[in-house]
Amino acid sequence: MTPGPGVLLGIVMVLALTVSGAVAQGHPTGSITGKVIAPADDLLEGLRRGKKMLRYDDVSHAAEPIEPYRLREVAVVYVEDVSGGERYPPPDTNPRLNQSQMVFRPLVLPVIVGTTVDFPNNDNLYHNVFSYSQPREFDLGRYPQGRRRSVTFDTPGVVNVYCDIHSYMFATILVLTNPYFSLPGDDGTYSIRNLPEGTYDLSFWYGRKKVSTRRVRMDAGKTITVDFP
Amino acid sequence: MTTPTRPRTHSRTLMLSCMLLAVATGQVAAQFNIAGQASAHLLKSQRALSQYSVNDGRPTFGWRFDLFVDAEISENIFFLSNFRVMQDQEISIDLFALRFTELAGQALNAEIGEIDAPFGALGERRFPRSNPFFSLNLGREHLTTLCRSDYELWLFNNVHSAAGDGVRIIEGPLYDIGVKAFGRWGVVEYAVALTNGVPSSSGSYSPGGLNPNRGFGKYLRLGLSPVTGLTAGFSYARGPFLPSGGNTTYGAGYTAEGDPAKYYQEIFGADLEYSIGHLDFYAEGFHNRWAYADVYGADLKATGASAEIRYVPATRYSVALRVGGVFFNRIHATVYGPLYLPVFYDGTWDRDVFRIEGAAGYRIARNVLLKLVYQHTETRGADPPDDLSAVQMVVNF
Q: What is the mean pLDDT of residues B252-278?
């Protein structure tokens, strides 16, 4: 029996979908999965103490509790560089670095070069967000609750963000050259899909610093497992 | 431009050393929070017989170190302290207080110990990092002709008057030993305090930190913040300033008789703070009265105000301007004249002063600030005016 045109079309479509799972923008791809274990640094405790020990400004707000951070707000696994110099488009929706409960949320925000980040103030008091990091210096000044300012990040690198009023507040914006990063779930698992084949440095960032970097070999159609630390 | 001096007490040094040792050995490090500011400066003032002349007008280097050591005792109990030392002086303990928070939500917190007395809203401006200028405003800096040691008016003795040996109207950043309750209800904030001293002579500057007066200083501050960034405040303080005991003579032959508590300082203050974007405005004014009518026929009054504006035109850069003045009332009294002979005096009991200051700042790094400051002070009846230029580097950690 000879298959009809409809059956042939179906076979072609299935094949195409299978191959497309391993090819991104014309390159064969694979995936990385794994699990991260957060370092012992108690980020929340440092922020909570800094907030509680305010001396002169906003003291009456200091006792308000800080909602614990989820792992995806303080950690990211990302590919350092993807050869080829390809430019990836920034997301259509601006990611946000919130000022809320007198802390930044998230503490770590990975973005692609060219992304505009919004900085909304959700607190009923002033913050003054600024950064003197080389990839992007800015000083947003003071603006009230419900307002936001925006900054576009055109140069890759690490941007340390602070508040000029509340010195304990900090956050890190990782300006990356590619979209191959993952925010781990609450159980620590992460996955990066459709990574073109090649050899990469895969890094784990937690809180204020890079915890570790692993060199990985990505083969087309494969899924490798990398755990941190 | 003098700095408040305090009794030399080695116990302060010992206390600080023990505290740092405890932290260094890790015994209590988990509870402690240590921060500080260190600053160094080079300044040049006018050479003049004036309290605003520094080191006879010679270019002079100097430094200041503020150490903040705080501890979290429990969820709602904290220990707060400021240690300050300048140019090899003894260590001064400005703040040494236990804070109890959330006694009734945001509405009631308390501090006991050496507290920052609630007059005005100086806040972090008392420290070099947040103060865009080199010193505080005139109302908190000017040394009057009212002598610190005996509360005599030394109008004709330059050592005590022009050069500045008298009490301040408000003692700089103003810390005192006592108890304070403070909190917030919606847009209203309040603070009340009971202290050993008064704004012009806080108990913490008295020998041994004791209360030399009969009675406490009483403080009240109310603030209103209708919108974020805008705070209008009203302050009031009153308390006796003459030391109790003894048969001290005040004025030329006048004796402060009866209850020293009737010789009190009373001061009203108002402050206004507004900030938006890269602009920051702060102003404060006061009307002060030392009840001295029994001695000089009139109370000694002083009224002053200052306003400052700070603007950040570009990331890392800031500019600031401050103007202010203090005015004194007239008295008709017999005072000590030249050669300590009594003379009848008709005029203001101190010379009115005016000041304008300009400053530029550059943040070298997040924790490093470089400031250039120019200060021009004019004293009515004195010639020439006092100019001061300073460059100051501030590091906070």
A: 82
CA-closest candidate to residue A102, choices A167, A150, A193, A159: A167
A61 contacts in chain B (CB < 8 Å) = 106
CATH architecture of B95-396: Beta Barrel (2.40)
CA distance B352 to chain A (A): 31
B316 and A59 within 8 Å at the Cβ level: the answer is: no
As given in the structure block, the two tokens for residue A22 are 């391993």
Residue B316 to residue A137, Cβ atoms within 8 A = yes
Residue in chain B closest to A162 (alpha carbons) equals: B366
pTM over 0.90: no
State pLDDT tens for residues B159-201: 556 666 788 999 888 999 999 999 999 899 999 999 988 999 8
Specify the CATH number for the domain of residue A153.
Answer: 2.60.40.420
Q: Number of residue pairs across A and B with CB atoms under 8 Å? A: 75
Indicate the domain borders of chain B: 95-396
Range of the domain at A156: 5-225
Rounded Cα distance between A224 and B148, Å, is 78
Task: Evaluate if residue B345 carries a pLDDT over 90.
Answer: no
DSSP per-residue letters across A88-150: PPPPSSPPB-EEETTEEESSEEEEETTEEEEEEB-SSS--EEEE--TT--EEEEE--TT-EEE
**Nearest residue in A to B364, CA atom:** A132
Which residues of chain B lie closer than 8 angstroms to A127, CB-CB? Answer: none
The minimum CA-CA distance between B94 and chain A, rounded to whole Å, is: 13
Sign of CA dihedral A39, A41, A45, A47: negative
Closest CA to B289 of B349, B203, B345, B206: B349
Q: Which of the four pLDDT bands, split at 50, 70 and 90, describes residue A12?
A: very low
Q: Among A125-134, A177-186, B142-151, B194-203, where is mean pLDDT lowest? A: B142-151
pLDDT tens-digit map of B247-258: 455 655 555 566
Nearest CA in chain B to A138: B315
Chain A nearest C-alpha distance from B111 (Å): 11
Q: Number of folded domains in chain A?
A: 1
Considering only A78-87, B5-14, B95-104, B377-386, which range has the smallest mean pLDDT?
B5-14
Enter the tokens of residue B182: 């403070």
Interface touch B312/A56, C-beta < 8 Å = no
Residues of B whose CB is below 8 A from A57: 123-124
